[in-house]
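Preliminary data (for renewal application), flavin-adenine dinucleotide complex.
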Amino acid sequence: MKPNLVIGGGIVGLYTAYYLLQQGEEVEILDQGEMEVNCSTGNAGMIVPSHIVPLASPGMIAKGFSWMLSSKSPFYIQPRLDRRLVDWCMLFYRHSTLQHVKKSIPSLKALSLLSRQLYVDFVAEHGDNGIQLQEKGLLMLYQTKEGEKEEREFSHLARANGLQVEVLGSEDIQRLEPNVEVRARGGIYFPEDAHLSPADLHRYLKGYLIKRGVKIHTNRAVRGFDKQGDMVTAVQTDKGSIPCGQLMICAGAWSGDLAKMLGFRLPMMGGKGYSFELPNQPQLQQASILTEARVSQSPYGPKVRFGGTMEISNQPQKINLNRVQGIFDAISRYYPDFRAEFPADQQIWSGLRPCSPDGLPYIGKSPRWTNVCFGTGHSMMGLSLAPATGKLLAQIAHHQSPSCPLEGFVVDRFC
Ligand SMILES: Cc1cc2nc3c(=O)[nH]c(=O)nc-3n(C[C@H](O)[C@H](O)[C@H](O)COP(=O)(O)OP(=O)(O)OC[C@H]3O[C@@H](n4cnc5c(N)ncnc54)[C@H](O)[C@@H]3O)c2cc1C
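Predicted structure:
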């Protein structure tokens, strides 16, 4: 029997390998790098069943245009004549409707809740191991009237869809954050959300898989595929071919290139974001999103990570300091007495979110090739949705009925 092969050693690929292993399968992982240049280690680590609205939603287009006028804003697309980008933007525009949001909510919510439960089960089974799963909810802070209107509308939508939601005034917020002044008009609190340390999770999971016999091929670039009938039999790399039974493609923002090699269209753009860790003083306690600035804040005891921006780009390494300054400036606006120093270059992390144009992941069988599945396109929620994606892919590979509906996530929806 040929081993199952997972392309991509980000968090989605690792969880896919994990659940295949749980099915008693032999599994190998292939990555183009050392599994370090990806989006899965420096993100905000938030597990967000509250995020039931996909990125493509009404209002995003208008907001995007206004943000593009400032070099420090949270969103940017460098205008360029790139066929793939134009195509992606057109699809994004077409999906930014209320109808799309309403249709997406049930499937996103089911996927998120499944994933959250799988995280809880995972930590119960494996122990903490530095993962620092904190089931303390997520606070969406707002400072302006418009922010309040937007967040309150969202809170009604979330409640109508069965999520737990609390609307907090400034005194309630200060109770959650007793050490630091929080400058906010109010906030929406989602008690079912959680956060963890993404780099420690990635490190632990990789080590666990290696210990359980998963072979990892690093620094191998995919050059093509060997095919026979309707099956892919091997992956050709710059260092030779690797035979595969089931092939799981979890290659993040690069997955569209692999789909192209397999002869079909999987629209995908990288959404670059930045983060940095600072000493947590005075100590922040509550994972929060500073909504007007679109900045995330995730505390880990003596350290805290701030992250944000969405630059539609395919260059993971290039750091735009103006955008990082935009994140940094938000800290003192919301937490005036927090002691923050601008991070040195080597402290700044960047990652490319794999963004599909309708804001929904691609999970399931590929068109044409019966032994190939994709698990990608999770955009701002890849950490949150990784365990559920991995579990579903392992179930599909074994012809088992999936733990939650897959209709919204079909891989060939743009073919
Ligand atoms: C600032 C920021 C904050 C974020 N915060 C959160 C958050 O709080 N919660 C959340 O859920 N999500 C968050 N995200 C999004 C999340 O980080 C991503 O959705 C997730 O990490 C994507 O994981 P992945 O495994 O799909 O892709 P990646 O982590 O990018 O992994 C893909 C892997 O595939 C490999 N690869 C690519 N092409 C090939 C090839 N041809 N051959 C071999 N290997 C290949 C790459 O080397 C890489 O290791 C955030 C993102 C950013 C940028």
